[in-house]
Amino acid sequence: MPRVKYTESDVNLVARMMRAEAEGEGKLGMLMVGNVVVNRAIANCLDFQDLRSISDVIYQIQGGNYSFEAVQKGNVFYNRAREVDKRLARRTLDRWRQHPSKYALWYFNPYAPCPPTWYGQPFTGQYKLHCFYEPQADTCDAVYMG
What we know:
Layout: H1 8-22, H2 26-43, H3 54-58, E1 61-62, E2 65-66, H4 69-73, H5 83-94, E3 106-108, E4 117-118, E5 121-127, E6 130-133, H6 141-145
Antiparallel strand pairs: 1-2, 3-6, 4-5, 5-6
């Protein structure tokens, strides 16, 4: 059973997001970005309440901007999804999880050392250029169960 309900359109969205945000970090980096997308879809807490679909997550607007820089700036996100990226997206949507993105709801590239917290949430680890952050243990139970 998949971690989150999804359609073929969702596979394409996640594939495009993974490539746009982390293609330079290889397949593992792309999977980690996809994992954050799935975690946000199941979290229903903090900044991610009432997001009911992959599309809701990817096109979420916070503070007047899209939550993901790739959607905001366009870059590779608006290219067609490649088959290799779709396979990775399905892995993430179905079951894939790994530290440091296993329970992460945020990631970013600080172009410097990773700060110990991000918006008050603890740092869980770094993969190549991306720092990952998960919610504090008592603030978002759904992400730890999904």
